[in-house]
């Protein structure tokens, strides 16, 4: 279809080859747009393996309340300073950083869903598409930029997590430290930085 502008996929590298073939064979300028659900999943599993999902769901974003995350996180950390309350898990600095990255990823879904809820019975309307695009460009763009800023800050703070190689053309490659279980999840996000930002360009993208 001449209207095809994006290919929404997971991180399988074959899709990059597919968009290249579409350009060469059909002359269509199609961009890859990677799925945030797939990008979120390894972070989710990492937090689950660390026992942090219960902290996130119970104390930081209770009942899906996204607006009080920063306050809830601060309050939780203060509570864990009380040596008498042994049932609360103390958070390391890495824990806090990973929970914050996870929160911002989830916020992207929350922002979209707030517009979807408003137009629940009119998701094909031009009004819905216009507002979704406006919200994505005014709010989601800032959030998605923050996600990648936080990840880059994380690997700067903890240089043993990921080995970064800078190439002459300006590109970078990332190699996980096998002792750092969070490295593959963060590398997945970094590898598809631009692809994961493309949903900002169109309300047609999931």
Q: Would you give an account of this structure?
A:
The protein is mainly alpha-helical. Helices cover 57% and strands 9% of the residues. It contains eight helices and four strands; from the N terminus they run E-H-E-H-H-H-H-H-E-E-H-H. It has helices at 14-26, 36-49, 53-60, 69-79, 93-118, 126-157, 183-191, 193-197, and strands spanning 6-9, 31-34, 162-166, 172-176. Strands 1-2 form a two-stranded parallel ribbon. A two-stranded antiparallel ribbon has the order 3-4. Helix 1 links the parallel strand 1 and strand 2 (31-34). Helix 2 packs antiparallel against helix 7 (183-191). The two termini are 19 Å apart. The model has no long low-confidence stretch (mean pLDDT 89).
SSE succession: EHEHHHHHEEHH
Structural class: mainly alpha
Q: Tell me about the biggest sheet?
A: 2 strands, parallel
**Inertia-based shape:** flat
Strand ordering within the main sheet? 1-2
Distance between the termini: 19 Å
Rounded to the nearest angstrom, the radius of gyration is: 19 Å
The amount of beta strand, in percent, is 5-15%
Helix content: 55-70%
Q: So how many helices?
A: 8
Q: What is the strand tally?
A: 4
Mean pLDDT: 89
Low-confidence spans: none
List keywords for this structure.
8 helices; mainly alpha; two-stranded antiparallel sheet; 9% strand; single chain; 206 residues; flat; two-stranded parallel ribbon
């Amino acid at each position: 279809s001449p209207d095809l502008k994006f290919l929404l996929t997971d991180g399988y590298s074959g899709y990059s080859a597919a968009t290249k073939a579409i350009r060469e064979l059909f002359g269509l300028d199609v961009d890859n747009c990677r799925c945030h659900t797939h990008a979120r999943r390894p972070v989710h599993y990492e937090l689950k393996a660390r026992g942090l999902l219960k902290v996130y769901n119970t104390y930081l974003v209770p009942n899906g309340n996204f607006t009080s995350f920063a306050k809830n996180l601060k309050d939780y950390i203060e509570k864990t300073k009380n040596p008498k309350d042994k049932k609360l898990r103390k958070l390391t600095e890495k824990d806090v950083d990973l929970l914050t990255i996870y929160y911002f990823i989830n916020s992207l879904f929350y922002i979209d869903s707030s517009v979807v809820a408003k137009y629940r019975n009119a998701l094909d309307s031009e009004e819905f598409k216009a507002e979704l695009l406006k919200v994505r460009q005014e709010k989601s763009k800032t959030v998605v930029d923050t996600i990648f800023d936080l990840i880059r800050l994380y690997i700067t703070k903890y240089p043993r997590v990921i080995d970064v190689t800078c190439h002459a053309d300006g590109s970078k490659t990332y190699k996980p430290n096998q002792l750092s279980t969070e490295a593959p999840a963060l590398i997945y996000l970094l590898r598809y930085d631009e692809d994961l930002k493309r949903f900002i360009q169109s309300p047609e993208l999931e």
